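re: that chain from earlier
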Amino acid sequence: MKRPAVHFSAWVAVCLAVLTLTGWSTVAHAQRRRGRKATPAATAAPAEKAPEAAPAAAPEPDKPAAEAPKEEPPAAAASSTDDLKLPPEGEAAGTGTTGKPSPELSWQDIVVVPRKAFLKGLRLELSPFTGMSVNDLLIRHFVFGADLNFFLTDVLWIGLEGQYFLKALTEREELTGLQYNRVPSLNRYLYGASFNLGYVPAYGKFSLFNRAIFHWEIYATAGVGWTRSQIIPRDPSNEKFNNDDLTPNVGLGTRLFLFDWLTLDVSIRDYILPDKFENEQRPAGQDAAAAKANATQALVNNVMVMAGIGIYLPTKFSYKSPR
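^ sequence. v structure.
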C-alpha cells in the first residue's frame, strides 16, 4: 500500500513542476512581445493570440492588464516637418541607398524658384564691342569701342562709352554719281563718347538641346554724348571741316551669361545727331570756315548693330541672402 502512494505523490510533483515552468515561459514571452517597438508591418498584421497560462501558475495573477508596457508610436508617424527627410539626388523618394530615410537633407533644401546664376550688383563691367551702321545706303561705318559700366544694383547701371569709326563707301554711292550725274552730300564719323544709363526689364533662361541651361537678359539703354563728324567734299580739292554734335542715343540689347565673369552682348543702338553737310552751292576754293557757316543742317539717325563681350570685376560674386 505504501508503494502506490509514493508513485502517485511523485507523479503529482512532476505535473506541478511542468505546469509551473510552462507558465513562466509563456508570461516571459508575452512581456518580451509587449516591449518590442511596433513597426508599420507589425501594426498592420493581426495580433497573435498569446496562449493562456494556467491560473495557478501565473507569477502575477492580480496584475491588471492596463499596467502592461505601453507601445511606442511608430517612427514613420512623425508629424513634425523638421523630422522629414529628403533623399539625395538620384535616389527614390524617402529612401537612401540602403532603403532607409536619408538624414542629410531636410525640407529647407527644397528650392521652388532657383536663385539667379549671375549677379552684377556693385560690379564693374568692361565691354569691348564692334559693330556697323545699317540704315545708310551710300556710306557704311564700322565702329570699335568699349563700355565701362558700374552696376548700382543687379538691374540698374551707369556707364561711359567710347567709339572710333571707320568709313566705307558702298557701290550705291558710285552708281548714284554715274546714273544721276550728281555727287551726294556725305559725312563720315570720326569718334564719339557718351554717358549712358541702363536697365534690365526681363531675365530668363533656355535649354540647349536638353544638355545645357543658359541664362540671359534683355536690357534697355539711353544716354547723351558727343560725336565728331567730318564732311566728304564733292570736290576733293576743297577743304574739309568738322562738326561737334550733341548726340543722344537709345538702345536695346541682350546678354548671354557664359561664366561668372564673362557675358556675350548683342545690341542695336540709334545715335541721333543734328549734323551739318556741305552746301550744294559751295563754290570751288571756298575756305572751311565759310563753308561751315553756309552748311546745311539735318537730323541724322545713325543706327548701329553691335556685338561684344562683357568682363566683370571682381570675377566672383556671392549671394547675400539664403535660399
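The chain is about 15% helix and 40% strand.
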